[in-house]
Inverse folding.
């Protein structure tokens, strides 16, 4: 069992990949992260195999029986189908080698997906107690805080830290190098914080965790990322709506009242979005979400290219990492906007839906949506998640809604994938724990 413990240690270590930045590489915010993550997963896998090989006969049979039950989970099967579809899309895509290995800048593709899948399976097989997941969430929260701390130190100009200066109008990048990633990453961070607050009883834990809530929220604000803002709003609304439909009368009425107040407040702020007050509070960007906005329009044009490319390769798409090829072929000249700083090159459709549609075809997109289909089926149609209280179920629903909504306007990368697979592994544990 010692080998299994070491394997779990490296799984925890993998969650820290997001904090590393290496200025000696061409892409400081990307390269060392995926190198570190893959190294940690490889080490975890090696020690898992050693632990498995050194089990006694009786332990071996017991482990096989338990592993078989866990791997038969509908959610694990759905994730496996998605990963298989992702890899097949690369094999039958425009450039199979590029789809599998990606490039130095992104570090995604089939090989990255295989590492994420191994990470997910090891979580399923080794994290058998709630304390394992609580430890993972603690590491993730620590990583989120260190990610923010790195950005602060870089913004203050501390030697050895790479980043943008801390000043009004400058969007916060942390150690991720992209404001959009920071916002989405911290949505998961908030989920971990609230789940830990609900699960841990000690006063010291509360003292440490509660200050992280305003820190994470403030950081999302400083990123000025509208996708994360929409995701946060969707998550809060989902939690309050779930609570408003609960059996607890007082809690139900309070949640319904808060939801109504927030909706009215949001509508009011949207109406005055161009006022000096909103500009002073740096809220203009959050509420300047219109169909005529240049950022919105550019996404529509890019999505149009994705659809045109999908029509040419409808089954398995162009293959992961090959969106730029179809974007060039079906380039929309409206990306050239006179006297405006418009983007004219994309290697992603900036939407998880259109990215998977274009790059993995209808097979990959259905595989991806099937993962959440299973999750929602568990949530609404079958017996309640066995190891979650009603507030915890509300948190799971909120996190799912937040991720899916923000994903409508952004794409998945390692910091997001890492948390997504951790989250799915936890939901699978929570459902099957008491079976």
């Amino acid at each position: 069992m010692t080998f299994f413990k070491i394997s779990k240690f490296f799984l925890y270590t993998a969650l820290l990949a997001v904090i590393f930045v290496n200025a000696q590489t061409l892409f400081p915010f990307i390269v060392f992260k995926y190198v570190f993550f893959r190294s940690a997963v490889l080490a975890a896998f090696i020690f898992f195999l050693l632990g498995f090989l050194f089990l006694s006969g009786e332990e071996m049979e017991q482990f096989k029986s338990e592993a078989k039950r866990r791997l038969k989970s509908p959610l694990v099967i759905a994730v496996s189908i998605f990963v298989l579809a992702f890899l097949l899309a690369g094999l039958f895509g425009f450039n199979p080698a590029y789809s599998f290995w990606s490039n130095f800048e992104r570090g995604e593709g089939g090989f990255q997906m295989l590492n994420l899948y191994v990470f997910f399976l090891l979580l399923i097989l080794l994290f058998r107690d709630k304390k394992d997941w609580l430890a993972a969430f603690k590491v993730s929260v620590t990583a989120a805080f260190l990610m923010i701390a790195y950005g602060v130190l870089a913004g203050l100009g501390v030697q050895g830290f790479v980043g943008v200066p801390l000043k009004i109008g400058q969007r916060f990048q942390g150690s991720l190098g992209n404001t959009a990633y920071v916002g989405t990453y911290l949505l998961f961070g908030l989920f971990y914080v609230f789940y830990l607050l609900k699960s841990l009883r000690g006063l010291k834990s509360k003292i440490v965790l509660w200050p992280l809530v305003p820190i994470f929220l403030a950081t999302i604000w400083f990123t000025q990322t509208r996708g994360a803002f929409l995701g946060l709003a969707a998550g809060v609304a989902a939690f309050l709506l779930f609570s408003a439909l609960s059996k607890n009368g007082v809690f139900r009425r309070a949640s319904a009242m808060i939801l109504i107040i927030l909706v009215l407040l949001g509508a009011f702020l949207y109406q005055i979005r161009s006022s000096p007050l909103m500009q002073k509070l740096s809220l203009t960007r959050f509420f300047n979400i219109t169909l005529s906005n240049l950022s919105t329009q550019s996404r529509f044009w890019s999505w149009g290219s994705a659809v045109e490319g999908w029509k040419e390769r409808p089954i398995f798409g162009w293959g992961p990492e090959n969106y730029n090829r179809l974007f060039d072929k079906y380039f929309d000249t409206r990306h050239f906007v006179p006297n405006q700083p418009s983007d004219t090159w994309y290697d992603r459709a900036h939407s998880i839906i259109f990215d998977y549609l274009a790059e993995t075809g209808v097979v990959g997109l259905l595989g991806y949506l099937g993962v959440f289909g299973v999750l929602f089926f568990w949530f609404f149609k079958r017996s309640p998640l066995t190891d979650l209280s009603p507030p915890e179920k509300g948190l799971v629903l909120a996190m799912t809604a937040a991720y899916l909504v923000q994903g409508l306007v952004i794409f998945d990368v390692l910091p997001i994938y890492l948390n997504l697979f951790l989250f799915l592994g936890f939901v699978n544990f929570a459902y099957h724990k008491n079976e």
Q: What stands out?
A: Residues 352-380 form the longest helix (29 residues). The chain has a mean pLDDT of 88. The CA atoms of residues 70 and 124 lie 7 Å apart.
